[in-house]
Amino acid sequence: MNLVYADEQGNLYDHPDWTALGRSGDMIVELMDDELIPLPEGATLVGLPHTRPIGIDASGNMRPLPGDVQAVGALLPQGFTRLAIPGYMKTDKTQKLPLFGYSAVVWKNGGFYVAAHATDDPERWNPDNCDRGDVNRGVERLLAKYPENRLYKHLSHCALGYECLTSSNTFLQRWEGAVPVSYSCNAGCFGCISEQPDDSGFPAPQTRMNFKPTVEEVVEVMMEHLNTPESIISFGQGCEGEPSTQAKIIVEAMRIVRSRTNMGYININTNAGLTDHMRAIVDAGLDLMRVSTISALDDHYNAYYKPRAYTLANVEKSLRYASDKGVYTSINYLIFPGVTDREEEMEAMIGFAKRTGLRLIQMRNLNIDPESYLELIPKAKGEIYGMKQMLEIFKEELPDVVIGSYTHVPPAPRR
């Protein structure tokens, strides 16, 4: 498996005499054949600025590739869980990588391969299946139909500017669509993709919404999207804060919508820290709940999320309440090779899943600068098993929990 690298102009090469390596946490690791799959459709290869790739040279020595080169990583579409990050060293340790989830990539058998596992069916979230012309036409139609609706104007920027697939779905009126509601948050996530402190060193790749929508605006978006039995409309997007901070708007909008139609599913992507707010949203008729978490250990969770006036115990209470009320619950599990597969992390998450009645774990590759993240969180206390074995352990220990990558329509009828 040949090492892949890029020159200063972004041209990609493979080195016939160097073997590629990966990283697990801060350790350089060998990549196994059974960890590699062909580069998936919809994946993007990117250079890692201010880095040099590390590999094994023709003499069998592990070292950085010399020259004006940079490491290369793959950004995977939803449905694929990375098993290793690229093997590299930084040439300037003061520089932070943009907030993406980088996967190790190699050249093998005449093509690109990545260290990844197919965790879910990628079809619906393959960017190649989102026709940009259709999105443009959908934007024009809905903006013309609702010229005063600020949500549609905001989402048009997400769909056209960022090519966000969830907002694009809103204009394509298919699958899972977006309805953001909140400009504020009760957490200060280290890797927040919509808002970063000026001194963070991370440029936020998205712009957060800056207004409070009206109930009428929210209802219009929801009613347009809930047009098939399997359609999903979701509060809580990458372009907003915590949706449950606007629980009053959500509850009122849900009640109006459900008085008009029983079509489709209402979902919320949330940190679930505001337990009272979450109970009100559940009681208003919520169908699906996806809770973002990075760990079931307090010290790790708190280091990343920096929760304001809530704890991980509140998150657990919210999930338990929703599960008891018949909501199809899942977690948006932010995973990182060398961290998520730690012995103590796995034990804690398995216990968390059992206590809360989780139905689905969505494995989501954490978008972060690896060095900054590893400096932030506690050090490993037990054995590190590797991501592939971690997935196998989860399936064995949680036989009633689906291991996937994105929100699904429940297998059973809606409550």
From TrEMBL:
UniProt entry tagged with the keyword Protein biosynthesis: no
Residues spanning the signal sequence: none
Domain of life per record: Bacteria
Listed CDD domains: Radical_SAM
Cofactor(s) required for function per UniProt: [4Fe-4S] cluster
Alphabetical UniProt keywords: 4Fe-4S, Iron, Iron-sulfur, Metal-binding, S-adenosyl-L-methionine
Residues covered by the Radical SAM core domain: 180-346
Transmembrane segments: none
Designated name of the protein: Radical SAM protein
